[in-house]
Amino acid sequence: MPTAIFFDLDDTLLWDKKSIETALEKTVNDAKELYGTDPDKLLAAVKEAAPRLYQEYDFYEFTKMIGINPFEGLWGQFGDPIHHTFRQMGEEIADYQKRVWQKVLQSQGVSQSGDTLREKFITHRKNSPFLYEETLDVLDQLKEHYQLVVVTNGAPSLQLEKLRITPELVPYFDHIVISGNIGEGKPGQAIFDHALRVSGQSAEDVWMVGDNLRTDILGANGAGIHSVWIQHEASKTPGEGDGTPDRTISRLKEILDLL
């Protein structure tokens, strides 16, 4: 049995997909009130436009390495001083955010800047933090017996903002390790090596719990850490390029039965 458990953050402890979806839905409904646009069409348009426009920026390859997706890009401020590409993102990200919303409005025949919807989406996302319903109960039970560490991909400023708006989560963890501080995201080994070092643990004494087969599970396997995959969708199975988990659960609370 482990002496420490590493946890992914987004869509493992935090329900980030629900937060993004909620913020998008509120924003397209705002657009309906402001401009008379169809919410469903606008929602489909922004889901297509954001990933496409994100790839046009010089920082895109860096975000893939660190693990920052286009919808995080729609509300993050970035500008973290630790890396020149974060500083570049800080200078350019508002342009990306405004362009996405302007383009989707144009797709609906509305000639307006994207500034208003940009601000509304950022506000809605900050006001829409969601934890999975069992997260705190599971951490309560684990904290008494194991060292707990967050190992998350992303920009430090954005990941810490997510934790700032869910302050009840932070006290459970001895360490919070963020890929942007390391210079490489999961599944790269540097972030796992760092997490092992700061926690004082050996790989064989750690379990890694996460929802992503290509980052959490593949990375843990490479580091010699026992991997536990949260399979949120029963239809999803490991494919080519994915890691093969040592154990699979469908909900976070099932980790208690494994231990």
UniProtKB/TrEMBL annotation:
Its EC number is 3.1.3.3. Its cofactor is Mg(2+); Co(2+). One of its GO terms (molecular function) is L-phosphoserine phosphatase activity. It comes from the Bacteria. GO terms for biological process: L-serine biosynthetic process. Catalyzes the last step of the phosphorylated serine biosynthetic pathway, i.e. dephosphorylation of O-phospho-L-serine to form L-serine. Belongs to the HAD-like hydrolase superfamily. This is Phosphoserine phosphatase.
